[in-house]
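User: Sequence recovery, please. Input:
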């Protein structure tokens, strides 16, 4: 196995792409808030699209590592690296430590979107739109199934978006005021982001940041040189997915305004 700082390489590879997509999406978020709009329909539309990225990652991840309920609280095998590992054992050793429950977004997204849909804000789904979102999820599942080590790229890029960019985005969203989100001022002072904003909240975020960084740094000795390159290439491809998703959202938003 090649020894290398995969996390440092990831940071360098994605830096320009990260800055570009952050500017792109941050500018779009302001269009979803007052005074540009008076309801949550555009925000909800965007969340439905980006949710598919996280659904795809987390579904494929569990498929690679097995049901977490069966192993999450077991003591790790400290002798696992003392002998040659099968492909499945290596994937377990690589991907299970990164499976941090506090990071998972699927349940939060389902809860947020469930509440948004209950608000009757006109979030109808056309067959074409449904197919586009399904393709996003299916493509991620296919890519990870073929190369499970790509989870490293998806986990770092997609959870970093919450852990490192989430505070700035949350601050922007909260400028709309609690009433816009159907919340009381008391709910927003609780220290957590309740539905329909729970997607942006990570319990004990500072600790989780350290744990994610450590797990990815420790992945180096389990990755071949080709797998490391696959991860770097895929990280850039994820930002291409983000850009295509936002472009699709622009088109859907234009249709909603007409």
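Assistant: Recovered sequence (258 residues):
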């Amino acid at each position: 196995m090649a020894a290398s700082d995969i996390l440092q390489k990831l940071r360098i590879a994605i830096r320009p792409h990260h800055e570009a997509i952050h500017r792109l999406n941050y500018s779009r978020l302001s269009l979803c808030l007052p005074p540009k709009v008076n309801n949550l329909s555009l925000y909800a539309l965007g969340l439905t699209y980006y949710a598919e990225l996280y659904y795809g990652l987390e579904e494929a991840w569990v498929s690679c590592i097995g049901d977490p309920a069966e192993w999450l609280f077991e003591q790790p095998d400290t002798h696992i690296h003392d002998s040659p590992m099968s492909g499945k054992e290596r994937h377990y050793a690589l991907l299970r430590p990164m499976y941090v429950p506090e990071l998972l977004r699927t349940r939060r997204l389902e809860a947020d979107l469930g509440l948004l849909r209950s608000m009757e804000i006109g979030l109808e789904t056309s067959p074409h739109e449904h197919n586009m979102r399904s393709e996003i999820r299916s493509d991620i599942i296919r890519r990870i199934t073929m190369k499970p080590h790509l989870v490293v790229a998806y986990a770092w890029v997609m959870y970093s978006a919450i852990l490192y960019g989430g505070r700035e985005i949350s601050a922007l969203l909260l400028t709309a005021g609690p009433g816009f989100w159907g919340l009381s001022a008391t709910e927003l002072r609780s220290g957590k982001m309740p539905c329909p904003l729970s997607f942006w909240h990570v319990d004990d975020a500072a600790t989780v940041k350290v744990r994610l960084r450590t797990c990815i740094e420790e992945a180096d000795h389990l990755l071949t040189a080709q797998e490391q390159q696959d991860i770097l290439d895929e990280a850039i491809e994820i930002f291409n997915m983000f850009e295509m998703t936002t472009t699709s959202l622009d088109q859907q938003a234009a249709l909603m305004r007409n």
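The chain has ten helices and no strands.
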